[in-house]
Amino acid sequence: MIDESPKQKIASKLEKMFQVRYLALIVSFFLMLNGILAIALGVKHLWETVLILFGNHDKGAGSSIITSIDTFLFALVILILAGGIFKLFVGNQNTFKESAVFSKLNNFKDLKVLLWETILLTLTVWCALGFFIDSDKLLYEQLILPFTILLLALALNFIKKGEH
């Protein structure tokens, strides 16, 4: 049996330390933390909506509800990204096996498609929010986003058809 030199021992320890698994665990943890903070921000928007509705100020309640929904959807995107990174890089096949969302993730492409669908939904709500908030002054920039959403949806459809 060949003994390793001290340099080789240090190199092997560093190699184990810099595996993608540990980096993915750190990234997943911080993404989860950001998702929780985004949920807290959504709760804040929702609380402001409740105060507007029960304070007999009907002005702005609709846009405040859509803002809170948009914030919750953005938090969902972040949490899906965190869970997907954890399952693909840190966990194994049995990680999240009870979850309807993460149980079907087997590779990075599955995570990408799941995120793509969630981001399309979030963009749709964000686009609707833009039309509700600035309904008096519609600009041509607001027309670009619906076409972008349509193109992204068509591209996702082509990718899904290519799988089957």
TrEMBL record:
InterPro entries, per this entry? UPF0114 (IPR005134)
Q: What is this protein called?
A: YqhA family protein
Q: Does the keyword Nucleotide-binding apply?
A: no
> What keywords would UniProt list here?
Membrane, Transmembrane, Transmembrane helix
Mind telling me which residue stretches traverse the membrane in this protein? 20-43, 63-90, 111-133, 139-159
State the signal peptide span. Answer: none
One matching Pfam family is UPF0114
